[in-house]
Write a sequence for this structure.
């Protein structure tokens, strides 16, 4: 009996520590800043253990019965904790809240274990020996767990499976406790039945761990990929590293949540603020809703029409909590009308007039996208401009793709528009360029919406200055029948990568 | 009858859906637009029904291809409306006919017009009217989008059809040498579009030898250069260099300026022009009217078509000229009019093959193939995302005798030609069968005039081309070869002559 008892202590101690380590590791992987995560989780956990220990004094009778229940509960909650937290992170916004709740519940239960166990066995040993032996094996279990966790469990089993494995151990402890302490237990039948059911549940969980991992673990922690989706039109990948969310379309970076405000403020405000009374805005591309978020900062705007090819993309940015947090639910605004259509035929067929047109397409990496950067396209877009209207075009980098940038500016000019090129620095992109174009002259705005983090009136004139290494290049316009831009863009990036 | 493995799989396919080899899907399709049956009635002197009504018009245009439609366009534009155009087929347009399915419109034959040079006045006039040419600028969306052409050779694609990779120094020299020759010919001003403008007896010598003989005489023996010359002759004339007059071979290159990026093209090919012309002159067009007899009674012509006798003062015969001796009473047989048989097919693709390689391109040619490759009908779409498309497959039966090839066209069934087309495409696109859901095939026994040796300066042809009297011939074959600009020029010129005659009498 003695040795079995101490093995029990060793095992439950290991289980408790494993759950704590899993929570700490998960939080570090998913949220970053491991010092903060481990500190707060260990703190919460130990504090919760204290609560558990304190609560143990209110348990007067049925010690073994309650101990077995605690082990069963730990088996379920601890065993599924990792899977639950992964899925919560992937599909909800309540990850942190849930994580601390799980840590506290496990801590309380673990805090109850040792005091109860001590009281269960106190009649068989001297108090002095009970304390010494139980605490010795408790700390031995912790040592074993802390070595096992990084060396074997994480690399070979992964977090989801490790938690379940230790859940199984908790349940096994519960089951054998019904035999070990049979004398102190009035009825064991129900407990054993529950134990077997929980064991089966964990067994199924272990067998399905790969699928859960597929659904959550690999997607989140291994590749830091929150979401990967093949739509009819493109491959959408959303990654997260610490607090930085990045969107890739066909493996081209579209934004980084850390600095996208620079890009989108620069895309919208220099142009839109320069229009006296803008009412109607057209956004071509921009299915992430971030440009629309900036446009909604102008209360006088009555309607925003967004044309994006991919319904899956606009749906994702209308519904995914992590993404609607980024675009501040801009697609839910009643002013916004989303149209999922191919931009060129839509622009060609539609006859509406707009005060501001935002043209924010992926870079011209191929001839299909290149059509959206041609004189023919800009002429068609220009026909939608109201008398006071302006358009702004994302125009690649004047630094890394200098020929391409000035080719786009020349194309706009050849489409019969007055052009006003400018550029900003976006850390994740580098120097990035835009062109404001219109049938009328452009003058710098005299006011801006409140709350901008990057664009201000004082610095704005400097955006329109190009230092020598980004200065204009003589380039022919990009035409449907002679797409010099696609070749120039290809060449520009080849030059960079050599 | 022994069945091949493929036939077995196809026939058993219905029972074995999901079990048969991946890719062996059923491909639907048929022959379309067959018109040889009607032509053979004329050739064989068949009996036609008696006319039971008479329609009187000042002018009757026979044939609704580009020549006939252009004659109608001219008459209409000059405010003349006392005419009718009789078309044998259900669909007007001749070699510029087109089709359409749920994916796109597509051409049945002629699919582009090179950017017209300064001498193609009538073409420029038409294109200004249609908004293709505005203030001296060609409308961008009607110019062929990038990337235009590519050639598959040595297991890879290159941009452009003129071979540019794997050339030896001697090949380069000969391409340059040819270019110099062409420059000189171009500078003479005797090779023009339309050809009638620069036509000169001083170039007659070139019409007495074949293009192959001429190339050989210049020492141009490069295999690559000769492949390219042969490809050009097959593409424009449906003939090989040895069955093409040297004059015509040179005309192909020397008649055009080094142009702006072109050519002009539309999803339905030159069918787009047909549609625009029909918007203007459709009211004069009577389809399903095969003229089987034209006879002269004093100052009037009598034209029999179906149940109607058309009485007219002038006839513009814009149908292929070889038909005329079978129709026009008293006309002597023609000896110098030879035609190339062609086959075109439109393939519906549910998706692009994985083996596509590179960006979607308009014109795709395989070097090691007797065919002319395929043209992508969705290439001129403004859309950025295209997943389904229609390929128009071109095959000029240039090798061997036209008569034998015509027999082959008639005797082999749809399945034979379908397999021939797929096997040709499989040279480059091994997975093509997995992509194609439908193949419609159009057989044309007399698709285009063949400018064989002596054809251009043939007295018989020149005589008809002069266009005297009240029956005026207008088909492009009067130029010796079939291209849009020649057809349009002949049609407009015939209409001008009629207008002069009628105006002069008034």
């Amino acid at each position: 009996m003695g040795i079995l008892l101490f093995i029990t202590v060793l095992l439950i101690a290991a289980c408790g520590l494993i759950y704590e380590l899993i929570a700490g590791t998960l939080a570090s992987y998913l949220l970053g800043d491991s010092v903060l995560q481990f500190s707060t989780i260990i703190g919460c956990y130990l504090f919760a253990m204290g609560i558990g220990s304190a609560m143990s004094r209110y348990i007067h009778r049925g010690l073994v019965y309650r101990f077995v229940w605690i082990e069963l509960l730990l088996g379920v909650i601890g065993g599924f904790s990792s899977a639950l937290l992964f899925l919560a992170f992937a599909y909800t916004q309540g990850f942190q809240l849930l994580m601390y709740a799980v840590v506290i519940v496990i801590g309380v239960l673990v805090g109850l274990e040792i005091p109860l166990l001590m009281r269960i066995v106190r009649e068989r040993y001297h108090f002095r020996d009970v304390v010494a032996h139980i605490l010795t094996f408790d700390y031995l279990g912790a040592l074993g767990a802390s070595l096992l966790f990084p060396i074997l469990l994480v690399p070979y089993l992964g977090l989801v499976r490790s938690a379940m494995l230790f859940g199984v151990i908790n349940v096994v402890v519960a089951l054998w406790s019904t035999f070990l302490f049979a004398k102190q237990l009035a009825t064991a039948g129900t407990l054993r039945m529950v134990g077997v059911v929980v064991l089966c549940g964990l067994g199924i969980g272990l067998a399905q761990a790969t699928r859960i991992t597929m659904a959550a673990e690999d997607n989140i922690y291994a590749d830091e990929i929150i979401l990967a989706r093949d739509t009819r039109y493109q491959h959408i990948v959303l990654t997260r590293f610490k607090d930085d969310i990045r969107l890739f379309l066909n493996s081209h970076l579209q934004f980084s949540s850390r600095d996208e405000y620079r890009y989108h403020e620069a895309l919208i405000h220099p142009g839109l603020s320069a229009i006296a009374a803008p009412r109607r805005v057209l956004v071509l591309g921009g299915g992430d809703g971030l440009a629309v978020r900036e446009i909604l900062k102008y209360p006088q705007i009555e309607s925003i029409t967004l044309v994006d090819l991919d319904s899956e993309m606009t749906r994702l940015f209308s519904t995914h909590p992590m993404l609607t947090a980024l675009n501040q639910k801009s697609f839910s605004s009643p002013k916004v009308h989303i149209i999922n259509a191919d931009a060129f035929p839509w622009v060609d067929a539609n006859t509406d007039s707009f005060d501001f047109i935002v043209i924010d397409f992926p870079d011209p990496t191929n001839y299909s996208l290149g059509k959206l950067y041609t004189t023919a396209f800009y002429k068609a877009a220009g026909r939608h401009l109201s008398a006071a209207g302006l358009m702004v075009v994302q125009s690649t980098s004047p630094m890394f793709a200098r020929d391409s940038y000035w080719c786009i500016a020349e194309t706009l000019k050849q489409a019969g528009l007055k052009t006003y090129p400018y550029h900003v620095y976006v850390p994740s992109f580098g120097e990035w360029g835009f062109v404001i174009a219109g049938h009328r002259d452009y003058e710098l705005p005299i006011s801006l919406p409140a709350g901008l983090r990057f664009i201000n009136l004082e610095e704005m004139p400097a955006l329109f200055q190009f230092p020598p290494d980004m200065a204009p290049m003589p380039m022919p316009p990009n035409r449907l029948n002679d797409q010099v831009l696609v070749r120039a863009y290809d060449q520009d990036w080849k030059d960079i990568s050599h | 009858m022994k069945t091949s493995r493929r036939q077995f799989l196809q026939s058993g396919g219905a029972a074995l859906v999901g079990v048969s080899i991946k890719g062996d899907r059923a491909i639907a399709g048929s022959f379309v637009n067959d018109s040889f049956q009607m032509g053979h009635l004329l050739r064989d002197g068949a009996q036609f029904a008696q006319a039971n009504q008479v329609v009187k018009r000042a002018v009757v245009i026979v044939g609704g291809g580009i020549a006939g439609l252009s004659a109608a366009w001219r008459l209409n534009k000059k405010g003349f409306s006392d005419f009718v155009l009789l078309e044998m087929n259900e669909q007007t347009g001749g070699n510029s006919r087109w089709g359409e399915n749920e994916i796109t419109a597509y051409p049945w034959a002629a699919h582009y017009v090179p950017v017209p040079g300064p001498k193609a006045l009538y073409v420029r006039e038409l294109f200004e009217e249609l908004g293709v040419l505005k203030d001296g600028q060609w409308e961008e969306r009607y110019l062929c989008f990038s990337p235009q052409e590519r050639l598959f050779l040595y297991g890879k694609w290159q941009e452009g059809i003129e071979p540019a990779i794997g050339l030896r120094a001697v090949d380069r020299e000969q391409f340059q040498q040819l270019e110099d020759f062409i420059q000189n010919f171009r500078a003479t001003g005797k090779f023009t579009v339309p050809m009638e403008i620069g036509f000169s007896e001083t170039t007659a010598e070139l019409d007495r030898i074949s293009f192959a003989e001429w190339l050989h005489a210049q020492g141009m023996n490069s295999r690559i250069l000769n492949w390219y010359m042969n490809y050009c002759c097959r593409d424009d004339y449906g003939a090989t260099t040895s069955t093409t007059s040297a004059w015509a071979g040179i005309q192909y290159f020397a008649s055009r300026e080094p142009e702006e990026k072109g050519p002009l093209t539309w999803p339905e090919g030159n069918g787009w022009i047909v549609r625009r012309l029909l918007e203007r002159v459709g009211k004069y067009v009577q389809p399903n009217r095969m003229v089987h007899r034209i006879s002269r009674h004093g100052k009037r012509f009598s034209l029999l078509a179906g149940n109607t006798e058309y009485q007219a003062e002038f006839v513009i015969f814009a149908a292929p000229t070889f038909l005329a001796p079978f129709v026009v009473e008293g006309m002597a047989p023609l000896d110098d009019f030879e035609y190339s048989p062609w086959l075109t097919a439109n393939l519906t693709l549910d998706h692009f093959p994985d083996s596509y390689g590179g960006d979607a391109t308009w014109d795709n040619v395989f070097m090691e193939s007797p065919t002319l490759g395929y043209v992508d009908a969705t290439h001129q779409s403004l859309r950025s995302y295209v997943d389904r498309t229609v390929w128009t497959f071109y095959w000029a039966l240039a090798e061997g005798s036209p008569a034998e090839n015509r027999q082959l066209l008639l005797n082999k069934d749809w399945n034979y030609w379908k397999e021939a087309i797929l096997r040709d495409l499989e040279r480059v696109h091994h997975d093509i069968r997995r992509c194609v859901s439908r193949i419609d095939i159009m057989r044309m026994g007399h698709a285009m005039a063949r400018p064989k040796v002596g054809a251009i300066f043939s007295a018989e042809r020149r005589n008809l081309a002069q266009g005297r009297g009240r029956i005026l011939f207008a088909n492009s074959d009067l130029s010796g070869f079939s291209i849009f600009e020649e057809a349009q020029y002949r049609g407009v010129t015939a209409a001008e002559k009629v207008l002069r005659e009628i105006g002069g009498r008034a």
The interface with chain A takes residues 140-141, 143-148, 261-262, 359-360, 381-387 of chain B (CB under 8 Å). Residues 355 and 428 of chain B are 7 Å apart (CA to CA). Residues 1-23 of chain B have pLDDT under 50 and may be disordered.
